[in-house]
Amino acid sequence: HHATQAAWVHELAPKALVFEMLTEAQAKAVTPENRISESSLEAALGWNSSGWPDFSMYYPIFAAAPNAAVFGAAVPRDRLRAVMDADLVEVVGVEVAQRFGLDRPLPSGQQEERENLQMAAHCNALPAALLPRMVNVQRARDAALAQAALAALQAHGTPVVVITGNGHARTDWGAPFLMQTAAPEVRYFALGQSEAGQYPQGDFSITVDGPAVDRGNPCDAFK
Description:
The chain is mainly alpha-helical. It contains 11 helices and 5 strands; from the N terminus they run αβαααβαααααβααββ.
């Protein structure tokens, strides 16, 4: 999947790259000097302590657009904890909430579906009371991606490429949907990626299939 992203980035030659994996501070640490090698960029980003998989999977994406501006869309951990403990609008701010529709409740059916997805993603080990808060965390992350993409577009023009997972890339409620809420004139194309015919939930502009990867069973940790 990362190789596919790198290939698409190479072909699109974006003016800017937005990474779900980077905070704004990390993105600002990227320089023409340190991005010329995998080891120097990894060190500059402090990637080893970020919790994301091996940087060798991500560096080819950076290398595919060596002159593109880099934006970070990760929500810092302290803000995510605040979303878990407080009102979503209060944490993100009224202006951002209104811009991306976070000040409005989700449709009842979608709220339930999202909560069920959160429960399944966490191996059915979450207390039910946490599920609405987990959904709020997802909405905050989607909004951060949409906000960063629009900022990159305004600063550098088209095209802009956002590197994120299927859950955030889905067009029916993810970052593209929120971006359209804020800026309906902006055109987008959302790439979904599947494994061995197991297609992700949600809507995408196109879905590209790839081979399966043996990750073991992450739920074994709960047994």
